[in-house]
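Q: My labmate handed me this sequence with no annotations at all. I'd like to see what the chain might look like in three dimensions before we decide whether it's worth expressing. Could you predict it?
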Amino acid sequence: MNRVMTCKEAEAAILARMAASRVALLEANSTPTDVSVARRQTRLPAATFVGAMAEAPRVTVVLALCVGAIILGPRRTVAIAGRSGVAAWVGGSVRKLVARQGELVVVDK
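A: Here is what I predict for the chain of 109 residues:
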């Protein structure tokens, strides 16, 4: 006969499933001890460098400036980047100012 699980039983079942999945995840992520450090590194150094550069902050901007300097020339690239940078700076400052003003406004009810 089917019966409805109580809240405590349902919570216990969920916690048991979470514990089982945690154990499975830890097993999947553990590295065998017999694998040497040299064998674990399968990526090429160049791929590691490119991956590190892609994860670094503002790399896209630097790469865009380099490509722009090559294609458009340094003078136009600096002018375009300067205009875009000033617009972003002003926009960010206004956004911060509005957010700060929103925090200071207190409505009494």
